[in-house]
Amino acid sequence: MTFQRARSEEQRAVRRQAILETTSAMLDEMSVAEVTLNELSRRVGLAKTAVLRYFESREAILLDLMDDRTTTWLVELERELAHGVDLSGSAMERAEQAADVLSRSLATQTVLCDLIGAQGGVLEHNVSVEVIRRHKRASLGNLAVMAGLVRRHLPEVGDRAELFCLHALFMAGTLSAYASPPPSLLAVYESEPALAVHHVDLRTALRLAIITSLVGVLPRS
């Protein structure tokens, strides 16, 4: 893919979208840590300096992509909760069902979990105030949508839904780092299973963390 220099806002929007789509495809092949501007520019057909005309840094690209992926995932989550939570059940039954849905759904979003895991320590660095402001506004909007979905199926959570959702996302980002160890670590775990305590199944670990968190925010009967 090669581009001529963008001459209009419409052309700039096309370039930005191509950069985001190329980065998204790269993340289906590699971790966030492995994505480089050099490889991205090669795949998108733009010089590295040209890529930086559309996004100020690698981190700015990944933050935009994280917001887009979260928005798309929430559309899927709405359908999954609607099918997976029986609104006629008790609060605890619905909490367990919601934990099943959330853990299963997040465990399939490996790229999103990787992005969330890198958010605070990596992605929110090397970006301007305006990029952070835009990202935080998008994040808060997505958090409000997620909290609304949780309240729809667990109204008992009330105004603690946002905090619960934030913690669920943070847990997904943190736990995902332990679910996909590098080959050298896998070799160690295989040769010495007692050392494999930190090698977790993401869905199982997330379900336990989510149900524990939900029990903490549900009102005492």
TrEMBL record:
<dbReference type="Pfam" id="PF17929">
    <property type="entry name" value="TetR_C_34"/>
</dbReference>
<dbReference type="InterPro" id="IPR001647">
    <property type="entry name" value="HTH_TetR"/>
</dbReference>
<dbReference type="Pfam" id="PF00440">
    <property type="entry name" value="TetR_N"/>
</dbReference>
<feature type="DNA-binding region" description="H-T-H motif">
    <location>
        <begin position="36"/>
        <end position="55"/>
    </location>
</feature>
<feature type="domain" description="HTH tetR-type">
    <location>
        <begin position="13"/>
        <end position="73"/>
    </location>
</feature>
<keyword id="KW-0238">DNA-binding</keyword>
<dbReference type="InterPro" id="IPR041483">
    <property type="entry name" value="TetR_C_34"/>
</dbReference>
<dbReference type="InterPro" id="IPR009057">
    <property type="entry name" value="Homeodomain-like_sf"/>
</dbReference>
<dbReference type="GO" id="GO:0003677">
    <property type="term" value="F:DNA binding"/>
</dbReference>
<protein>
    <submittedName>
        <fullName>TetR family transcriptional regulator</fullName>
    </submittedName>
</protein>
